[in-house]
Amino acid sequence: MLNIICSFSSAISNILYILLAIALLLLMVLIHEFGHYTAGKLLGFKINEFAVGMGPKLLSKKKKNGEVFSLRAFPLGGFCAFEGEDGEETVPGAFNAQKPWKRLIVLFSGAFFNFLTAVVAILIAFSVFGDTAMAVGKVYEYSPSYTTAKLQQGDVFYSVDGKVIYLASDFSSHISGKQSFDAVVIRNGELVTVEDIEVGTYYINYVQASSGDYDFGSYRPEYGHALYKINGQCIYTEGQLQSVLDSLGEDSVLQAVFIDNYSEEHTIEISKKDYLASLSFVNQSYTGMGIASNYAHVDYTFGEALSRTFPYCFRVGSLILESLGGLFTGSVGVDQLSGPISTIGLTSQIAATGIGNILLLVAIISVNLAVFNLLPVPALDGCRMLFVIIEWIRKKPLDRKLEAYINFAGLVFILAFAILVELVKVF
Questions:
Q1: CATH of 131-298 given 1.20.1420.30, 2.40.10.270, 3.40.50.2000, 2.30.42.10
Q2: Does residue 41 carry a pLDDT above 90?
Q3: What average pLDDT score do residues 235-241 get?
Q4: Cβ-proximal residues to 352 (8 Å cutoff; 6+ apart), any chain
């Protein structure tokens, strides 16, 4: 009975988190449309309808000025419908009858409101809940930092060669291709400069299989655990494991130290014969500092949070552009993208981890919406802005019907691409 109650409670929680995820995504789209609406109202555009959701109307209310506010059946976003968006309307206040600079402001305001949302969310998240940053979890004895004490367990990376780290991916990109670098780390609440941190190539032997017939005692080396030492000697160079084993007699007893997936050490004593018979390894190299990375919580004052907020948002935006560019170069696959359904699933999972992470996710999705909508892709605000700029330069618009066809084709492409992303996730 208790299991049934727990299962039911878990199912209800999952449903609530999914509903919260849908509500968050709907809110962010509505903020985008509210940006268009606000700019349009301030600049004298005639607005026909502001809708929450898509599809058939469930509720609607018409104001004295003719504006309709409606609630629609499907919670998939919303829209702000301007008078004369796709035609040569001459009605006062019609969208295409307005001056180009006014239309550019209205089109840009959706992305601008998304970006403001991201700024507010990040500022609250950093100043109230802090952030999670990359830290040193363990310094291995073969690392140059072990003997020089340059890096210490618990150090949080703040910057690399003068470049502040905002995202976890920044660290690896900042040290890529370098043999050494300088870093500023947060150590015991203070900023400490660490110079000439060496980057080397290490050859690690990972457990591929362990015999079920052999009794290893309280600890059994599992798949993916790394061999760290044999008889006190670190194993980290190419071919070193075989060389050490060859140097030992057949009756030798080995003291082998392994590192598990949580960077914890485990020691076993085993004869060379049993060792060779019960364990198999795969040798892999990695380039790094000879440390195990970890994540640590960092608190910021309001001033520190404010100083990080705008650069953080711009960094997220640049990362989104890099990812989109990677689609064309092949460095990013379609399977690495998220469509609407998978985004809702991811959002619901993060929603269960706390308000701080929800705010970070809101910021990331808001910046994503801002950047994506400003791309010069048909049906998006960026392409419509491009048409307005062309009209401004030519002193006359392109064929409105042609614009409408191009935007419709773009909408079909975006919907088809979103479906493709979801299908790739499934299959």
A1: 2.30.42.10
A2: yes
A3: 94
A4: 13, 17
In this prediction, residue 192 carries a pLDDT of 93
CA terminus-to-terminus distance, the chain: 37
- 28 confidence band (pLDDT: 50, 70, 90): confident
Nearest-angstrom CA–CA distance, 175 and 380 = 36
DSSP per-residue letters across 98-151: S-HHHHHHHHHHHHHHHHHHHHHHHHHIIIII-EEEEEEEEE-TTSHHHHH--S
- Separation of alpha carbons 238 and 201, rounded Å: 10
**Helix residue spans in 133-206 (DSSP H):** 144-148, 168-175
Residue 393: phi and psi, rounded to 5, are -70, -45
Q: Which helix H or strand E contains 417, and what residues bound it? A: helix 400-426
As a whole number, the mean pLDDT across the chain is: 85
339, pLDDT greater than 60: no
As a whole number, mean pLDDT of residues 133-149 equals: 91
Whether pLDDT at 120 is above 80: yes
Please choose, from the candidates 48, 51, 92, the residue with its C-alpha nearest in 3D space to the C-alpha of residue 73: 51
369 close to 32: Cβ distance less than 8 angstroms: yes
In tens, the pLDDT along 347-390 reads 566 666 678 888 888 898 899 889 989 999 888 899 999 999 99
The gap from C-alpha 276 to its chain's centroid, in whole angstroms, comes to 43
Alpha helix segments (H runs only) across 160-271? 168-175, 240-247
Where are the domains positioned within the chain? 13-128+338-426, 131-298
